[in-house]
């Protein structure tokens, strides 16, 4: 069932926009007649003309629409100077109400354009259907016709203009939840490496569980790739790396490692390089983003270590790749564990807890319960030390000086970090990143 209707009047000429009440009347009447007990939300998208001092729905009044009793509280006009701005504002309204099934009523000539905007600004969470809107010249009415055949693919120049318009609009948005903050380790020498762990502040993602510097997009979440890309651009500017030379692991919750410059595996949770200016990154939203640095051989790596990856030894697999590929001495490699869910909060089923208990009983608390508490950080340290990493070359939450602690519990700090464990399926993601300075 359609949850929202978007009426696209953005490209209508000024004389028709001045008579918008008449133009809307027939369309709204059709929506009301076809609606079930719960009518859909209706959003009317219009172009805000240059020089207009009034914005948004204040630019229009609706005395002729008072008869639509079932729609009047669910009707909103959104005016903006660009399609990207108007559509992104409507997306925020949809997300506020958790709406995902949308009918778009628009002039036939706008359909292919609108599909490109939607492809960039929305994810697979949303479902769209399209219906043609035909404007009769010299008339104040709209007629809804049956959907027509698909149009031709837009020229590449038009596609580029749309992407540019979206990018410029997103770049103009203010940062949310304060300034962008990066946590850095004192263990990694900053004269050789650029590195850090992000927090959730300083981006433009507005959905509560994703707000604000979400750095991962998927088909199951509401943050589109263009928003994540803008968050990454802001991070790159703040941190000083090139976002075009940025490589993030392709999570498989296993122990495969990608070596930069060699054939890239389909999925991998570790990545290593000795190339200057290439930024490696591992995400985390409870799982541990782990960074590796060898100041002697000037090589680095990043790994994503969840409970499965921890048990499969993804951290030591990353270390071993640095040793075999770049001739690193395991005793020179520095390892930093970033923000992740702590043993204070994280639970696993008893069968999975047994595997951590085998590594060290101290990795499990309340072992006899159905869902014991698990310390994946301690397990990671133990496996690294067994693999030859020096204890003093590992930084985690066990350090003596807690003022230098960057291995915070993500679940315990909702103001600073995202947490899948705490926030559910529509969660945001922070990252750990590292590169060798030029």
UniProtKB/TrEMBL annotation:
GO terms for cellular component: endoplasmic reticulum; nucleus; peroxisome. It is found in: Cytoplasm; Endoplasmic reticulum; Nucleus; Peroxisome. It catalyses: inosine + phosphate = alpha-D-ribose 1-phosphate + hypoxanthine; adenosine + H2O + H(+) = inosine + NH4(+); guanosine + phosphate = alpha-D-ribose 1-phosphate + guanine; adenosine + phosphate = alpha-D-ribose 1-phosphate + adenine. Keywords: Acetylation, Cytoplasm, Endoplasmic reticulum, Hydrolase, Immunity, Inflammatory response, Innate immunity, Metal-binding, Nucleus, Peroxisome, Phosphoprotein, Transferase, Zinc. The keyword Membrane does not apply. GO terms for biological process: inflammatory response; innate immune response; regulation of defense response. Its main location: cytoplasm. The keyword Transmembrane does not apply. CDD domains: YfiH. SUPFAM superfamilies: CNF1/YfiH-like putative cysteine hydrolases. Its EC number is 2.4.2.1, 2.4.2.28, 3.5.4.4. GO terms for molecular function: copper ion binding; hydrolase activity; S-methyl-5-thioadenosine phosphorylase activity. It holds the Pfam family Cu-oxidase_4. Interacts with FASN. Interacts with SDHA. Interacts with ATF6, EIF2AK3 and ERN1. PANTHER family: PURINE NUCLEOSIDE PHOSPHORYLASE LACC1, UNCHARACTERIZED PROTEIN YFIH. Belongs to the purine nucleoside phosphorylase YfiH/LACC1 family. This is Purine nucleoside phosphorylase LACC1. It comes from Drymodes brunneopygia.
């Amino acid at each position: 069932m359609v949850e929202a209707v978007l009426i696209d009047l953005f490209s209508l000429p000024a004389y028709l926009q001045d008579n918008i009440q008449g133009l809307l009347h027939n369309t709204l009447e059709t929506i009301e007649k076809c609606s079930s007990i719960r009518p859909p939300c209706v959003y009317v998208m219009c172009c805000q003309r240059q020089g207009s001092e009034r914005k948004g729905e204040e630019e229009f009044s609706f005395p002729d629409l008072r008869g639509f009793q079932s729609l009047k509280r669910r009707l909103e006009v959104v005016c903006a100077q660009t399609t990207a701005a108007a559509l992104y504002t409507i997306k925020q309204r949809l997300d506020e109400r958790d709406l995902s099934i949308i009918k778009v009523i628009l002039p036939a000539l706008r359909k292919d354009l609108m599909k490109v905007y939607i492809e960039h600004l929305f994810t697979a969470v949303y479902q769209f259907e399209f219906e043609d809107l035909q404007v009769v010249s010299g008339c104040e009415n709209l007629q809804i016709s049956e959907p027509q055949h698909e149009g031709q693919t837009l020229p590449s120049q038009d596609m580029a203009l749309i992407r540019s318009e979206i990018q410029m609009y997103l770049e103009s948005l203010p940062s949310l939840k304060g300034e962008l903050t990066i946590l850095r380790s004192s263990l990694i020498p900053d004269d050789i490496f650029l590195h850090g762990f992000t927090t959730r502040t300083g981006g433009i993602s507005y959905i509560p569980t994703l707000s604000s510097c979400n750095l991962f997009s998927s088909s199951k979440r509401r943050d589109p790739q263009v928003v994540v890309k803008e968050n990454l651009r802001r991070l790159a500017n703040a941190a000083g790396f090139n976002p075009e030379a940025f490589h993030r692991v392709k999570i498989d919750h296993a122990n495969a490692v990608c070596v930069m410059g060699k054939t890239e595996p389909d999925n991998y949770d570790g990545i290593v390089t000795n190339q200057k200016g290439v930024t490696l990154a591992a995400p985390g939203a409870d799982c541990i983003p782990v960074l590796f640095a060898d100041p002697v051989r000037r090589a680095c790596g990043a790994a994503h270590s969840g409970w499965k990856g921890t048990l499969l030894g993804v951290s030591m697999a990353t270390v071993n790749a640095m040793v075999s590929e770049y001739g690193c001495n395991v005793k020179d490699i520095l390892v930093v564990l970033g923000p992740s869910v702590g043993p204070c909060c994280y639970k696993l089923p008893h069968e999975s807890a047994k595997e951590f208990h085998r590594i060290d009983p101290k990795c499990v608390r309340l072992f006899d319960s159905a869902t014991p508490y698990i310390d994946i950080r301690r397990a990671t340290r133990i496996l690294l030390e067994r693999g030859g990493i020096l204890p003093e070359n590992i930084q985690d939450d066990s350090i003596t000086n807690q003022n230098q602690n960057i291995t915070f519990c993500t679940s315990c700090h909702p103001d600073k970090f995202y947490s899948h464990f705490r926030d559910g399926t529509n969660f945001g993601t922070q990252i750990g990143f590292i590169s060798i300075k030029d």
